[in-house]
Amino acid sequence: MSRRDERRRRIEGAFEEFRRAVAATLGNASRELRQLADDRARDMFEVMLRGEGVDRALADPLLAKALKKEKFEQQLARTMIDRVDAFREWSERGPGRLTALVNAVAPGPASWPPERWLGQPGTEDGSAGVPELWRIGTGVVRAAPEPQTFPVAVPLLDHSHLHVVSTPDSREAADAVVENLLLRLVSYFQPGLVHVHVWDVNQLTGSLPGLYPLTRAGLLTVHDPARLHELLDELSDHIRRVHTGVLVEGHQSVRSVGGRRTEPWRVAVLFGNRQALKEEHQQQLQRVARNGLACGVQLIIVDIPVTVNSPIETVTIAADQSATTTMTGKHVTVALDPQFPQNQVPRACAAIAEKREERRTRLSTFADLLPEGLWRESSAAGVVAPVGYDEGEPVHVALGDTSPHALVGGPSGSGKTNFLYAMLGSLAARYHPDELELYLLDFKEGVSFAQFAPGRKDPTWLPHARLVGVNVNTDREFGVALLRFLADEMRRRADAAKLHEVTKLEQLREEDPDGRWPRIVAVVDEFQYLFGERDQVTAQATQLLEDVARRGRSQGIHLVLSSQDVSGIEGFWGKSAIFEQFTVRIALPKARRVLAEPQNDAAVELPRWHAVVNHESGVRPGNEIARIPDATGRGTFDRLQAELHARRPADLAEPILFDGSKVPNLQALPDFQALKPGERNPTVLLGQVIDMAGSAAKVRFARTPGRNIAVLGSLAEDAAAVLGGAALSLARQHEPTAAQFSLACLAEDAWPYAEKLCKQLQNAGHSVDLLGLDNIRALLDTTAARLTASITGETGAPLPPHYLVVYAVDGAHTLLENKNTARVSGMDSLRTVLKHGPENRTHLLGWWRGAQRLKNSLPPGVYDDIGAWLAFDIQGKELLSFGPEQVMAWSPRPRRGLFFDRFEHSRPQVVIPFDTGEES
Predict the structure, then answer these.
(1) Where are the alpha helices (DSSP H) in 106-170?
(2) How many beta carbons lie within 10 A of that of residue 845, not counting itself?
């Protein structure tokens, strides 16, 4: 073999070896590539299984062949095992826990099957709470290895609106869902607590026909398809009324008020056609949705595209009748409950309507206004109480920061007094006397409030009453005194609030929990008499009323003013700032000027025993018509008062009673009882001032010029009452025989009074002289001589107290004008006693039967020796010489006197003379 051939052979051998090596390498690479591809395919398959879900993968036709391949068996098995592990907790506990949850928060008709409750009217009044969920069907998680069903429920009342979305093929299912839910709602609560409104864009009638029996009881209203705006306006007005009339105690929603539900739910069902509403309707619907839940307005929207800024649950119903909800998510398939038996639905609704009619026609009683338990409410944010019923549902009056004061109007016989009793009884039953104080004042000749104070026949009294004024008649000053007290109390509370750096009573009570800060409600019946004259009293009353009306709300002070006719009160109605504060208006039948007339004339045709209650300043949308139960008959308010009186705190004092028809008793007066011997400057009590405390009109007999007292008037009875009270109050401040009393009676008609006073003083152990006209000159001359001797120093010892009580001083003028041998007249002696007596503890208390007669007893133009006077039937212009210009407004009235002490007063006071008691 040649060398060339050998080399060729070696080369070919090397190439063959290289080829085999490359082939082996490529074969290995191909096998590894196939292995990597298989691993990748298995990984991707597992990712798809886990990502899409085993259940969906098994149903996917594109994956059917892959699932049958042997190389994917391991991944499929592992995924199935992991799936079981992942669902183990759900499978073991999930459905059961959801079932228990729904049963717990959706009791009774809220979740029970219809055969257990359909046809039975509800009994719940909302006091035990509201179901949080309402059943619509049965859910299942189809992805679970062992699919198990559980109840599906959605939030509704006070929690969320509902949006139902369907297809043309599933619209009937949507209608069934809505009907079932409405039946659950109206069957859970007492008939009347849920009112349903239905609007369907496509039809005037026909929506939810099974519910139509509810219409005859006013529980279902079907609205015109072309008048959606009217329904939305109605809902908006309702929301506004709830905000002003119910949410007045700082509550954010009707639900937070607690207790028995007083405001019915409004459920508005809107059926659409999958087209958007008009822009203005959409905007108004959004406002209703945003504010409605807090006010008891529930929206159920079917097939209307909507976006609202409020909680809303969506139920989407597919063409195959299955559904999903935002509550359960996309992985839960909901099988909706079938429509309730259509032969039973109308009968069930008829039973509810019949029960509602029964409640509406039942005449509610005063006892129905009272709570289950007495004195359980807090007045921190305000007071709320039912006063009557509207179709079986309570109508409330609320006084708080947003509705601070109330105006009540109704002519004679309209039931105004009965309404006030109903309101006061309802309030008193709910709030403890530490939570609520009442100040009650009845003008004219009213005795409406005498019930609330202890009397001879009924010793009980209303524990909340701190002041009761009856038979006030013409004593308008007492109304001013009440307003002044309220203004002072308002300032006291404002100062305390400022100290605690708060602005409202509710905040003050939080900062000062140990303080006593009750709400104050002042009720003034026939208040128009307070503003009946163009005088100083009206001016003061208007100024004080404006102050209390403006600023009282934040300090928990509320006014309730009632009247038969409020049309002519110029001092009140002329000030819109005052008028605007009385946002609560109660109009009895035929009442005028209480509501916002002429637009609101609801009171004109109002039947007897009814009232219009309005918390929106009298505008028509705020009207509530209430039937007021009898609160004045035997066994109504009197029985409640007896029970409350028995429960009163042991240390609670009786209310202050001002009875304008009664004469105040001197001995019973605290100011008289407080007098005692030893006072250096004795205090004279002339009568009772018309004020809150029932205090006495006082004159202090200091040893200074002018401390004499003149009583002016023509009637001996009035003058004798003042002189008797003055003398007895002085006698109480001296030990027996320590003071000399000289009584001089110069008028025949005054003798019985003078003799009575003489015996009373003698019985008290005092030295008393009773003189007639024959001895008056000697008394004055002797007294004047004694005073002159003391002044000139002829007598060393100070003179003892000496009080000259002279009846009808002017009756001796002719006698006193005569002069003696020393050219000194009796008038000179009288003037000496008046001028120099007070400095020497000698004081004259005299009765003159006219202002001019008093002037005749004094030096011409010099009246300083009479420092205090009390005038009865004397016109104000005759008194200008003795007092400030305010006396011009004085018009005499029976058993009332005008008192002025120039040393103490800037303006005169009206005084009631005392009953000085019997001689013994």
Answers:
(1) none
(2) 24
Of 616, 615, 857, 869, the C-alpha closest to 722 is 869
DSSP state for residue 772 in the 8-state scheme: -
**Structure token digits, residue 539:** 């001016």
Tell how many helices (H) and how many strands (E) occur in the chain: 24, 31
To the nearest 10°, the Cα dihedral for 180, 185, 190, 191?
A: -60
CB 876 within 8 A of CB 891: yes
Pairing, β 897-901 against β 868-871: antiparallel
Q: Which among 160, 219, 517 is positioned nearest to 360, based on CA atoms?
A: 219
Provide DSSP, 379-393.
-SSEEEEEEEEETTE
pLDDT at position 41 = 62
Neighbours of 498 (CB within 10 A): 11
Q: Where are the beta strands (DSSP E) in 430-588?
A: 436-442, 465-470, 519-525, 557-563, 584-587
Which residues are CB-contacts of 176 (< 8 A; sequence separation ≥ 6)?
336, 337, 338, 339
Provide CB contacts within 8 A for 885, sequence distance 6+.
none
DSSP assignment string, 585-600: EEE-TT--SSSSTTT-
Spatial distance between the Cα atoms of 893 and 875, rounded to a whole number of angstroms: 10
User: How far is Cα 918 from Cα 757, in angstroms, rounded to an integer?
Assistant: 9
**SS3 (DSSP) at 635:** coil
Cβ atoms within 10 Å of 250's Cβ, excluding its own: 14
DSSP 375: T
pLDDT score recorded for residue 74: 63
State how far the Cα of 666 lies from the Cα of 696, in Å rounded to an integer: 9
Residue whose token pair is 């109002």? 606
**Cα→Cα distances 653→42, 69, 464, 478, 650, Å:** 92, 97, 10, 21, 8
- Residue 425 in 3-state DSSP? helix
Report the predicted TM-score, pTM, of the whole model to 2 decimal places. Answer: 0.72
Q: What is the 3-state secondary structure (H, E, C) of 427-447?
A: HHHHECCCCEEEEEEECECCC
* Gap between the Cα atoms of 637 and 369, Å rounded: 11
Tokens representing 261 are 């539900």
Regions of the chain short of the pLDDT cut 50: 570-571, 920
C-alpha to C-alpha distance for 420 and 407, rounded to whole angstroms = 11
Residue 438 CA to residue 522 CA, distance in Å, equals 6
- 234, two tokens: 């109605």
Task: Check if the beta carbon of residue 723 is closer than 8 Å to that of residue 847.
Answer: yes
d(CA 541, CA 530): 7
Sole residue written with tokens 């019930």: 451
Which distant-in-sequence residues (6+ apart) come within 8 Å of 729 by Cβ? 666, 672, 675, 682, 683, 684, 685
Across the chain, mean pLDDT equals 87
* CA 838/CA 790 separation, integer angstroms: 12
Which residues is 151 bridged to in the sheet? 138
Q: What is the pLDDT of residues 635-669, one digit of tens each?
A: 999 999 999 999 999 999 999 888 888 889 999 89
Which token pair is 849? 């039967």
Packing angle between helix 228-245 and helix 279-292, nearest 10 degrees? Answer: 30
- Read off the pLDDT of residues 113-141 as tens digits, 9 standing for 90 and up: 999 999 899 988 887 889 999 999 999 88
**Could you tell me which residues come within 8 angstroms of residue 329 by beta carbon, excluding any fewer than 6 positions away?**
none
DSSP annotation of 582: -
Distance CA 792, CA 798 (A): 12
Residues 424, 591 contacting (CB under 8 angstroms): no
Contact 374, 647 (CB under 8 A): yes
Confidence (pLDDT) at 596: 82
Q: Specify which residues 899 forms β-bridges with.
A: 870, 909
- How far apart CA 909 and CA 900 sit, in angstroms, is 6
Beta-strand relationship, 436-442 and 519-525: parallel
What the block records as the tokens of 135 is 């059943």
Q: Name the amino acid, one letter, at 175.
A: D
> And the tokens for 824?
């000194």
